[in-house]
Amino acid sequence: MWEVERGTHVTVNLSKGQAISLQKSDGGTLTAVRMGLGWQAAPRRGLFGKRTKEIDLDASAVLIADKQPVDVVFFRHLTSDDGSVTHTGDNLVGGAGQGGDDEAILVDLQRVPVHVDQIVFTVNSFTGQTFTEVENAFCRLVDETNGQELARYTLAGGGPYTAQIMAKVQREGSGWSMKALGEPANGRTFQDLMPAILPHI
C-alpha cells in the first residue's frame, strides 16, 4: 500500500494500480523526483544462533517511448544516455541507511526527452533471495527539490518472488503522474523483468 502525503497531515493511501498526479502542495509541477530503495537482510537462525545473510537488491528505471524500452538505468549503467535519470550507485548489502535509502534513482523530469512518455521503476534481488528474506524493505518517491516524501511502498513481508515492478511515472498533459504497480515478478536483472513490465506500459 502506498501512503501518499499531500500538504500537511493529510495522507492518502494509494493502492496497487491507482494513480496520483505529481503536483506540489502549492499547485506547481514537480521538476525532480527521487525513487529511493532501502532494506535490511532478515536474520536467519543457524547452528550458532542468528546469522544474517547479505542480500543485494537493485533498483532500476526503464525509460519507455511509445510502448518500447529505449534506455535503462541500473548498477551497470548509472546515467541514462540523455542525462535525465541517474542512479546513485550499487549497494550490495542494504541496511547502510538504517531506514534511509540504500539505493536511489534521481529523475530530472524537465530533462526527460520529449519522446520518453513513461519511466518504470523496478527492484530485483540480484543474489536470488526472495522477499521473504528481506526486512524493512521499502521504496519511496521523494520531491528532490525539498526532500518531501510523496509516497512510500513497503516491500517487507513479501512472498516467494525475487522482484517487483514497483511504480511508473508517466506524462499527463504538461506534467507527470505516478502509478503504483506493486506487481510481483521473478528475475535477477531488469532484463529478466521485461516480460512482466510490458503489460504495464
Shape designation:
globular
Query: Going by CATH, what is the homologous superfamily?
Result: sav2460 like domains
| Widest sheet: strand ordering | 2-1-13-12-4-10-9
Describe the main β-sheet briefly.
7 strands, antiparallel
Distance between the termini: 21 Å
The CATH class label is Mainly Beta
Account of the 3D structure:
- The chain is mainly beta and 201 residues long.
- It has a single domain (2-200), classed as Lipoxygenase-1.
- It is built from one helix and 15 strands.
- It has a seven-stranded antiparallel β-sheet with strand order 2-1-13-12-4-10-9, with no helix packed on it. Strands 3-15-14-11-7-8 form a six-stranded antiparallel β-sheet, with helices on one face. Strands 5-6 form a two-stranded antiparallel sheet.
- The chain starts with a strand and ends with a helix.
- The relative contact order is 0.23.
Short description:
Helices cover 4% and strands 49% of the residues. By secondary structure, it is mainly beta.
Topology, pairings included?
Layout: E1 2-5, E2 11-14, E3 19-21, E4 32-41, E5 43-46, E6 49-52, E7 57-65, E8 68-73, E9 85-87, E10 103-108, E11 118-125, E12 134-143, E13 148-154, E14 163-172, E15 175-185, H1 190-197
Antiparallel strand pairs: 1-2, 1-13, 3-15, 4-10, 4-12, 5-6, 7-8, 7-11, 9-10, 11-14, 12-13, 14-15
